[in-house]
Amino acid sequence: MRQYLDLIDNVLTDATYKPNRTGVDTLSSFSQHYRIDLQQGFPLLTTKDLSGFRWNSLIHEFLWYLSGDEHIRSLQKETSIWDAWADDDGRLDTAYGRFWRRYPLPKDDHRFEGETWPDESHRWCNSDGTFDQLQYVIDTLKENPHSRRLVVNAWHPANATVSTLPPCHYTFVCNVQGDRLNCHLTQRSGDTALGIPFNIAAYSLLTHVIAQETGFEVGTFGHTIVDAHIYCGTGARGQWYGDNLEELRSRVTAVDAPEEYVEVRDWLREEVPAGETDPRGKPYDHVPNLLLQCSRAPRDRPTIEIEDVPLSDLTFDSIQLRSYDSAAGLDFGVAE
Ligand SMILES: Nc1nc(=O)c2c([nH]1)NC[C@@H]1CN(c3ccc(C(=O)N[C@@H](CCC(=O)O)C(=O)O)cc3)CN21
Ligand SMILES: O=c1ccn([C@H]2C[C@H](O)[C@@H](COP(=O)(O)O)O2)c(=O)[nH]1
């Protein structure tokens, strides 16, 4: 997908060197945005393989979002991608679906005079005093599709100050134009190599699922990433990027044919100090493999087929990826 390759190029050419809490340094860019037309096929990247075990992780993560679970006990049976942020009982101190499906409502004595709040018998209030934002969006799309208030918010300001990992993709808005359903995601922090490909696929899938349930065609996925970053390594390896950023930026800026990204990668490999890998043996420095990805031509997009059942009945087998043809898989280490 062209938008993703442009994102990599934009981050590299606009980069600031930013060490951060993980100990794996980044090259970071502020406020990246793109739009993806979902009518042109499903935007699962084709410049690296995201089928097989990666597709398995992606779909189970998506079903976990929909579930509203505050823990990852079911998800852990299928993939380990969230394990590092959970405790021994599979609990997380922030979970997307928990806020999508069960956003906390203020208790009676925190409701001030003059304010309007739904009471517990309201159709989108759950019996435990929480609010189902996703159901609100689905019902409103059916009843009042031109609403401009179709917002789902996974950010709880107080929880975010103490959580180990407050939500990265923290709010999305559905918006209808004609017979098409669009979805816009705002993400505060985006790991370009690992998180973003999953996030694009998950929210595109969400758009398909909601569109099918509410009778719309899919439209556009819009994505804003506030801190879009590329992990570039620990210690001397990370620091090398800080010291040589101008040279890297000018080499990437000078690229005018895809295969030239490989020349930048070859220069880098000769110059850069040896780097570390994560416990699974995957490199913390994502730059070389992202340059390789930029040299690959995007292939035709696959399509997606979703069983026509209510959202709460969706299972792994309800979602079928068709005609997916990709380049070889690439390894990227996870910065914890
Ligand atoms: N640094 C970092 N990047 C992320 O993308 C990220 C986090 N942390 N923390 C929370 C979640 C977990 N997410 C993850 C974590 C790991 C993979 C990952 O390793 N993906 C591999 C496939 C691994 C597998 O399926 O087992 C990949 O090649 O895409 C992807 C998303 C996204 N998030
Ligand atoms: O869905 C996700 C979840 C996480 N990420 C990335 C973005 C960052 O690299 C880390 C989170 O670290 P913070 O210090 O909290 O920003 O995880 C992602 O890209 N997508």
UniProtKB/TrEMBL annotation:
Specify whether Transmembrane helix is a keyword of the entry: no
UniProt keywords (A-Z) are:
Cytoplasm, Methyltransferase, Nucleotide biosynthesis, Transferase
Q: Which GO terms describe its cellular component?
A: cytosol
Q: Which domain of life is it from?
A: Archaea
Compartment list: Cytoplasm
Give the E.C. number(s): 2.1.1.45
Q: In which pathway does it act?
A: Pyrimidine metabolism; dTTP biosynthesis
Answer whether the UniProt record assigns the keyword Phosphoprotein to this protein: no
Principal localization reads: cytoplasm
Record field: catalytic activity: dUMP + (6R)-5,10-methylene-5,6,7,8-tetrahydrofolate = 7,8-dihydrofolate + dTMP
The record's section on CDD domains has:
TS_Pyrimidine_HMase
Q: Which PANTHER family does the record cross-reference, listed alphabetically? A: THYMIDYLATE SYNTHASE 1 (PTHR11548)
NCBIfam families in the record, alphabetically? Answer: thym_sym
Q: Which family does it belong to?
A: Belongs to the thymidylate synthase family. Bacterial-type ThyA subfamily.
User: What binding partners and quaternary form does the record give?
Assistant: Homodimer.
Give the protein name, as stated in the record: Thymidylate synthase
Q: Which organism is it from?
A: Natronocalculus amylovorans
